[in-house]
Design a protein that fits this description.
Helices cover 31% and strands 38% of the residues. By secondary structure, it is of the alpha+beta class. The longest helix has 24 residues.
Length: 121
């Protein structure tokens, strides 16, 4: 797998800026819309679970699970951006991710932040 398969972030051309900070240098917040989130739950496929079990005995990265988690995180981020845009935001501040096990059958990933309208200062 190449490095691009392990990365994340926004795709070019997206109209909603997403940042982990509480503000954006050079911009001012004109309006706070409120909390937005993107949520997804992914189940693990049997082959990757068996492979992960074997790999955990000898140590090392679980590449199949890593790739699945990256895809899941990116899907949660895309849903967050879609929700923010639908509510009229052009930015999401203070984005965070929450990852939990979902009833021992999968992984839940939630991206959340504060949707706002920003303008250049």
């Amino acid at each position: 797998m190449g490095i691009e398969e392990y990365g994340g972030g926004q795709n070019p051309g997206v109209d909603v800026l997403v940042v982990t900070t509480d503000d954006v240098p050079g911009y001012r917040v004109e309006r706070v819309i409120g909390e937005v989130f993107g949520l997804t739950v992914r189940s693990r496929h049997l082959g990757s679970q068996i492979g992960a079990g074997l790999k955990s005995m000898v140590g090392g990265e679980l590449r199949g699970l890593t790739k699945t988690l990256v895809e899941t995180r990116n899907q949660a981020m895309a849903r967050l951006v879609d929700q923010a845009a639908a509510r009229g935001a052009n930015a999401v501040l203070a984005i965070r991710f929450d990852v939990t096990e979902a009833a021992d059958v999968g992984t839940e990933v939630c991206a959340y932040g504060t949707a706002v309208v920003v303008a250049q200062a």
